Amino acid sequence: MTVRTRFAPSPTGFLHVGGARTALFSWAYARHHAGRFILRVEDTDLERSTKESVDAILDGLHWLGIDWDEGPFFQMQRLARYREVAEQLIAAGKAYRCYMSKEELEAVRQDQIRNGLKPRYNGKWRDAKEKPPAGVPPVVRFKNPLAGEVRFRDEVKGEITVENQELDDLVLLRADGVPTYNFGVVVDDLDMGITHVIRGDDHVNNTPRQVNIFQALGAKLPVFAHVPMILGHDGERLSKRHGAASVTEYRSLGFLPEALSNYLARLGWSHGDDEIFSKESFVRWFDLAHVSRSPARFDPEKLAWLNQQYLKQAPDARLAGLVSQQMNFGPGPDLEKVVSLLKDRATTVAHLAEAASMFYRHDRPPRDKLAAHLDQPKTREALKAFLADLGALPRWDRDSIAAATKAALKASGLKMRELAVPVRVLVTGREETPSLDAVLELLGREEVLTRMSHYLQGD
Fold first, then answer.
1. What separation in angstroms does the CA of 354 have from each of 16, 311, 350?
2. pLDDT digits (tens, 9 = 90+) for 126-184
3. pTM score, two decimals?
4. Do 328 and 293 reside in the same domain of the chain?
5. Range of 119's domain?
6. Looking at residue 71, what DSSP letter applies?
7. 220 counts as catalytic
8. Residues 253 and 307 in one domain
9. Pairing relation of β-strands 296-297 and 230-231?
10. Cα torsion through 307, 6, 169, 102, rounded to 10
11. Is the same domain home to 348 and 329?
């Protein structure tokens, strides 16, 4: 048997991190078993589905490196197929046309609520013999078994059993011929030969209904695996209020795709104590047996730490290209060299770009910060002497700058921090930077002298 999995998003927004993790798990399972991964777009929500959302979802998957073997398939292009299967079920006595109006359904619902009953369709047209009302377009309903139970095994949750009496006759096709979620999913999974359905456990309550439809069609059930939800730090379902919620936002914030993929892979699944691993290792290791039954909590700080580890290992040329997309500064030193110096301290590309800006734009320090470092006569005189020594260096390199710094400390009696911090403030506007000699070397002699002179010789 060839393993066939699928990812089936609704194009009503961007690719949420929860959906991205579902896609990642389904993709990895197919790749692990040398199977096929299918992309299907469930676009039957006509009011909310948009082409922009489709493009955003595809773009997010591409960025994460999740490729598909077949598709994307669109449900709205398969309406004739859903009608065909619905007619087969009607002909077999397993579905029927229902002519109840919305007003009738609401009246029944309100009456059931008043009587303390669970609101549900009352089966009026299930075995009706009366003549259908003229001019009323019917929906097609499934004849759910009235007795017995639905039983299936979930690879994450274990055995699940639901009494059929808890389920009503769900709508398969709406009056306009558009399938409901539960019907469209079953027909698609059958037609596309899906062997393993891996999805979020918010769908687990739909599965008994789908199992009954599969069985009514005489079809073999796929393997089901409902993965745990992703929660925010407060234990609530992850949403916009917890911070960035879409893959696109994390890209804009400067996260690397391999870091986000690595982090999502560890949300609800584990391989021993491994925290950092390649996508190749993930595919080799991934199985459903190690998917947790408990909800996973999204930790932005841990994601930032993981992204930092990937930034440290990323090629300078690649990072320079990403940083340049977030910068609009003037001339300066080679960006790859700047990135190489700064990347160990950065948590995102955006953070890296902000740090790099000091080499291409002189952000003049506030007066109070400047005064705090220059008001001491001893410090000012040491800085002026250091400026002169820098200007007289025969070579502008780290060793020469380090030697000049050491000489300035000896001559002034200042401690390293008492000299280095004021110099940093003068040339970068910041109190903390990487090694002073490395920063000055990259800035270049002319730029360093110009920036320091502006404050030390201007009064």
1. 27, 15, 6
2. 998 888 888 889 999 999 999 999 999 999 999 999 999 999 999 999 999 999 999 99
3. 0.90
4. no
5. 80-173
6. E
7. no
8. yes
9. parallel
10. 60
11. yes
